[in-house]
Amino acid sequence: MAVRLKDIADELQLSVVTVSKVLQNYRDVNAETRRRVLEKAQELGYRPNYVARSLVMQRSATIGMVLPHLRHTFFQEVYQAIAAKASPKGYSLLIAISQEDPDQEAREIDHMISRQVEGLILASTRPYTAGDFLEPLEKRNLPLLLLDREFANYDAHFVGTDDVELGRFATAHLIEQGCTRIAHLRGPDVSTAIARVEGYRTELAAHKLTRHPHYVAGGTGDDEAGYWAMKSLLKAKPPPDSVFCYNDPVAAGAMKAVLDSGLRVPQDVAIVGAGNMHYSDLFRVPLTTVDQRSAEVGAQAADLILDLAERGSTTSATHKRGRRPKRVLVKPTMVIRESSRRKR
To answer: For the whole model, what pTM was predicted?
Structure first.
């Protein structure tokens, strides 16, 4: 017969709530009681029954995650980093994919609420100015953390890469390699793409380089879009001598377009991506990229959402205390490979 919380509690003459708190790593139990509970649980071979625990504690011990997709290793690595921190604290993760569809995203959020998650991590597929759709969540008293993508008109807790810096790093690197006609293949109308464009333009201005009106193209984040956008850029007069791409899949498409056109990478067109996906060094020409430090983003997101869930702290509660929600930006790093290396 499975060992129950009640069995441990009876053996130690403690309450079931106290035993449950120890096994969920709560901080408000003294060290001696914690030691006794953990030793007895190991002695009896206790394995957690999550359904029973939820009934006793009136908690689900679950964090919900709604992500736009998993085709980019960034979100996979962020998920793994969050899970690594949540599990030892007794939380499980419930993940849903919106497929970049706002209606599907809304359904998945409703599903998370119906499952009584104790916190919600959201990487939204909606445009940068569409944050007002989150306001009804405040009535649910649900701790919310925006991941990777934030909103201009909704001030919420946020963890992501410093995308303005990412755009600046990529552009500055191309300038250091002697490039002067630098194009950008942008992403969709979300904060990550908008901030990367800002970083790109800021760095061009800092070096007094001309912003060619046709050198920003694209608008999605996959390799096919990168291919056709790059084909179009190559027809510009004069054509760009380099391109900073919204992410590595876009860079993969851009590289194929350049090579299919009989040009060389990096001699004719230098290419920089973003994300440092695992296969970036396996391209026909190994890809220079900006590493978003996904594991660190995930670790920071885990710390924040778990703290919010433990305290039951919502965005509106933060505002009522006269404080701003936390905004954590992780600094990216350059990974230089052959696709941009003109100077030896």
So the answer is: 0.81
